Amino acid sequence: MSMLSQIRPAIVSTLWFTALLGVLYPLGVTAVAENTMPNRAAGSMIKGPAGQVVGSALIAQSFARPEYFHSRPSAAGKGYDATSSGGSNLGPLHPDLAKREAGDADAIRKSDGATVVPADAVTTSGSGLDPDISPANARMQANRVALARGVDPAVVRTLVDRATEQAFLGFIGQPRVNVLKLNMALDAEFPVRHAQTP
């Protein structure tokens, strides 16, 4: 038996599986995704009123102005950087983390008039890019947003309730509010002259 006849099956198998699993399978999965769920396959992009892309439903953005709901804090890069996704790597008992969270909670109490600050308002997600906040966090911010826009806080809370997505199948995950979608709905219903599309 020649050496070529012994290694030929290995070479043929490598080429065959490379073509099958490295080319045909990814192309097939991509084709199915683009035809069955085109928005998700394209990154779940959200378009503004003029048809321009303003962000993704899957990646948080920084909102700092008082007339907008604010996202969770981010430790991704310099904040909300999708190329540097990750946490701060500070343990739950690290003094720097405790100091930052206490400072953030104090700032929220002052700006939002909150007595109780939900945990997700001061803690970062594992990726630093979580686009959602808890309904409690959104309701806590409603008074500040309403005051900045000159509308009734009850109307803003109703908007929060409408934007709240329930747990998948009723028991997987937690109720949540997508901050970008909520801010866009806010601009559509209660525009302010100096507000820009998020």
- Compressed to H and E, one letter per element, the order equals HHEEHEHHEEH
Query: Which residues sit in consecutive blocks of at least 5 with pLDDT less than 50?
Result: none
Largest sheet, described in full?
Answer: 3 strands, antiparallel
**Structural classification:** mainly alpha
Q: For this entry, what is the oligomeric state of its chains?
A: single chain
* Tally of individual helices: 6
Overall pLDDT confidence: 87
The percentage helix is 40-55%
Mind explaining what this structure looks like?
The protein has 2 domains: 1-42; 45-189, no CATH class. 47% of the residues lie in helices and 7% in strands. The chain has helices spanning 3-36, 38-41, 95-112, 135-149, 153-163, 179-189, and strands spanning 45-47, 53-56, 132-133, 164-165, 176-178. The protein has a 3-stranded antiparallel β-sheet. It has a two-stranded antiparallel ribbon with strand order 1-2. It is elongated. It starts with a helix and ends in a 9-residue tail after the last helix.
